[in-house]
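TODO from last week: model Sigma-54-dependent Fis family transcriptional regulator.
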Amino acid sequence: MLDLRSHVSRIVSSANQLSLPPEETRALRTADTMAASWRRCMEGYRFDPAAKFLIESVSDAELKRHREANDELVHFAGPEIDAAFGAVSLSGFSISLGNLDGYVIAERANYNPQFYSEVERAGTAWAEPSAGTNAIGTCLVEGRPVGVHTNDHFFYEFSALSCASAPLFSPNAELMGAINISIRNPELQRETLKVVLGLTTGLADRIGERMFRHTFRRNYILKFATGPVDHGLIAVDGDFQLVGLNRAAREMLRDRVQLGRVRSLWAIFERDHRLLDLTRLAGAELTLHLQKGGDALSVLLSGPAEAPPASSRFTAADAASAPRRPAAPLAAADRRLTLDDCAGGDPRMKANVRFVRRVLGGSLPILLLGETGAGKDVFARAVHAESPRRGGPFVAFNCASVPDTLIDSELFGYGSGAFTGARREGSPGRLVEADGGTLFLDEIGDMPLGQQTRLLHVLESGEVTPLGSGKPRRIDVQVVAATNQNLEEQIASGLFRQDLYYRLAGAVIDIPPFRERADRRELIEAVFARLVGERAIELAPDAIALLLGHPWPGNLRELGHVLNRAIHMCEGPVLQARDIMIRPAGRMPMPATAVPEPVPESAEPPGEAGSARHAIAAAEREAIVSTLARCGGNVKAAAVALQLSRATLYRKLQRYQIAH
């Protein structure tokens, strides 16, 4: 933070460098927002940056009037503010809601005196003509997200504060106010404020979507990404006539839409024969192409929340009173699993989903922890599908399934002729393939240390250099990593880099094992329904009881295999316990016609009993079993202890039929 003299000198010199008059400085918003605001403060409002400043505040009665005048905004913003506050308050941040006049009409504050500033309480006035350059006021002037870092504030009095604000628009694209996340911390890094600004912008987008969906709750709504955290929303009636567009959609489609009169959706997009029956497609994700050779957009179509009238021709003014037949949901097999599907009825998973939705759009890396088969990969795909990057690629890379020698080329790519056997044109690698989308690093705990170092460099620099190429490439990816390992133990044993852990653990999600979930029965029935499809097969009560009593060491993956096998074994319309090849204790009974599988723990080593080969194999098997036990089942750690490569150890595990 600068001292008073340096603060004043910086503001005056920067503002004076602008050659345009104050009324034209809005054109400089992308070049130098702060300098344009400082010039307005000096020449338009006649402020002195060194002056002592007392923030204006209104009485409780006046604050109540401001709140009542913005009742709808407060109502729809409240749940989103509450949800976001849980994520940011731990770091000392507070959230406030400003109306169009710049008054704070609601707040969720972290009252820790180390971070909280009394000047930002409800009722205070932050319009730029009242308080100089600040996030709320300057955001309302600019009509776009603004971050104001410490000495970016015009008045030195506020230089310990850092704030990030994003504008809030009505369903008809009119400016209503601003949402603000702030902290009193003179040491806050500017890079941190950039991340917070992304969170604020995502929060504003979600609030705007809540209001839009309520206003057009009797219409079909198309949702598509217009930026890293912004979404366009288009409301249409059953005849594909435009009913409403939010601010982001209008900005993106301004050259294609005549908002003065109702126009067909097909004036914007190329006609798509799949959309003949909107009720059937509600909930589907589609790719639509803009007219006249325009870009392709990934669009999520949702159906009406309430039923409209028989008449299908109406405008935005009629939207609040027109009924329509509700959309029929897609069958489970016809759509991707969503975050809500992953959460089911389990309280821990619902909390996980709420947390993930708070941080989506902020580019925080996400680390998923959980047992094998618990659904980490499905959760990762659901995160991507709900994120602003869902129009980009989802690239999965299993760090344990690729030999150590190939991870470098597979993940980071390679140039032409980088090594013997390389493709002539080279390979971009998974990191580059995921550019603009999501990279899912499964089994990250099994990545070799050397590759961990390279990955850390890529994540910190945002650049990847393929093997055999000196040309780095800039990439922008959302990283979701997953592991069933205990990374703290891995770090303690020197098998995992601590700095990489902290780089990946932006948001840590614990996926509970299936046996601990409160919604086991619902999940069993959902997986069964998906596998059965349209076949007329039901689960008998004794089958459900058997499934509920099983400990499920393989979690949801094991459940899918067990049910799929049972469906094929079932000979009638009711799947019964006898069709399911498990017992509650976990040992699988085999039907009379089945070929018995070897029991891992009692498998005999190769060679004739008493022979030297048998003795050596038995000793090797015992060494592997005891080492695995010492390493808690961690194959990578056991391979290091045995001085074997993981590929060799996996072959020996298979050879000796050792469970791991």
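Done. The CA atoms of residues 92 and 115 lie 6 Å apart.
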